[in-house]
What we know:
Layout: E1 30-35, H1 49-68, E2 72-77, E3 80-81, E4 91-101, E5 105-116, E6 121-134, H2 152-186, E7 196-197, E8 203-208, H3 222-241, E9 246-250, E10 253-254, E11 264-274, E12 279-288, E13 295-305, E14 319-320, H4 325-348, E15 358-359, H5 365-381, E16 386-391, E17 394-401, E18 404-413, H6 417-425, E19 439-447, E20 450-457, E21 466-476, E22 485-493, E23 503-505, E24 511-517, E25 523-530, H7 540-543, H8 549-563
Parallel strand pairs: 7-14, 15-22, 21-23
Antiparallel strand pairs: 1-4, 2-6, 2-10, 3-9, 4-5, 5-6, 8-11, 9-13, 11-12, 12-13, 16-17, 17-18, 18-25, 19-20, 20-21, 21-22, 22-24, 24-25
Amino acid sequence: MSCEKGDGDPMEDPLFILESGEVYRNPTEVKMSQIVMPCHANHCGELSVGQLLKWMDSTACLSAERHAGSPCITASVDDIHFEHTIGVGQVVNIKAKVNRAFTSSMEVGITVSCEDLFSSCQWNVCNAFATFVARRTEEGKVQLKQVIPRTQTEQMEYSIAAERRRMRLTHAEIITDLLSSNTAQLGECQEYQGAVSAERTRVESVELVLPPHANHQVSTFGGQIMAWMENVATIAASRLCNAHPTLRTIDMFHFRGPSHIGDRLVLKAIVNNAFKHSMEVGVCAEAYQGAGALRHINSAFMTFEVLDKDRKPRTLPRIRPEPVDGKRRYQEAVARKKIRLDRKYIISCKQTEVPLSVPWDISNQMYLSYNNVSALKIMAARSNWMLSSEKNKVSLYTLEENQILCFKVETHVTVPAEQAFHLLSDLRRRHEWDRHYQQCDVIIQADEDDTIYRVATPCVSKGGKGQDFILLASRRKPCDSRDPYLIALRSVTLPTHPATEDYTRGEVLCAGFSIWEESNAVTKISYYNQATPGVLPYISNDIAGLSSSFYSTFHSCNKYLEENRDSLTVLPPSDR
């Protein structure tokens, strides 16, 4: 393993010193360090992912309980991508902290890194987000206290946690819709010569839940269930390739019900589909006691690779699915692969690696919206903005990091925050106060809060062509008083709306409004934009101090909001 060193994260917080002189540490933070022993490893000398999942779950649960002050149980785990394997003798460092608490659930962020004690090298293994729920008492649900973010990084994670929660709540329904629409387009399963029968990869195993497998609440550890599921999935994957597989990804999953000491857990796994360099294994966990009926505990989809001696993915044999259900699983695995690629391409990339315009379709709408909103929240969480100019209480700020220029315009209005949010979120009316918006039309109403517009803008220089933009607008209401109203904008591409000769196609990487209710009568509006070649001509003179057109624009915005403070706003008509 090579020693990997990053350039540093611009969001990394400097030491935060408390008034007492002590260095601040998040009160919910829990750390675990483990030396990987042979008993933790497989026959290749690598840490079993099942063992790692148990350690991760234990650390995260302790963090959740530290915040809740009461016993907690694992409700769900978001997608996990394992970047590296870990060898015997190396140290696993796990850190968990509560990012945000909602009414009765909380998000815990988990980071896993590996350390080689003999070379002092460290590298990232994976990041994960788990949802924990405080265990019910005789009085009913436990009401969790709010998390108070103290540092810039904590504020960013706190803010984005609301968008991740939104995605979790709609994930199952959206995935079901995408699978049904995508599999309908796939047609019949393709036959391959020499394909391995899926039946050959089928695994079924039973485990008796004993006291060592349970927590202090006599419920089976979520991490233990995940470890047993990983075990049978690995066996199924090995039967396809007759080699040791490496687990790369676990899709988001939810625990459907509890398991307790004395339960018999029935674990089933089968390879759903094999692609050129990876395979998907479906796993199901069910529980029963005595003569009782089976209870569904959990289902998960795991992606495996088989590495050669150079640690490169090997070509895998194809699978021959069973009739009916096997063919359904085969086709759904193809659709899920497409969804994973969208997710990895859009969400996992750093902001500097994301293309300016990403193709939009219904299958990646959920991830594009998440990326759109989280990018704006990350920009808004920056604390090192520099005041560039100010005029009549309209302020222009700039921020330059890693050769990326961002700007922020801030003002206050005497209009209720919710009304300002509704007025500003309808881009069709922006031409009433922003001279750069010549025309704006709705192309697609993806859902109630996400709309795709085509915006035409005039030319900045004489004799040139105007620009047009295809923008995804994602609007979000606050979850609680610590959240603003948000309107996030980013460019997307649509095959139905290619660039034309009449306009130069411009692009927006990240822009939008953050609207804070400071009182019943006063609202703070902040407009953010990450400057791109298509946007910079409209603001460069203001940043250089040669113009104050930003003031004129936001003075008009203030006037527009005042004049329409009592008007009713109507959502754009749906084109879908």
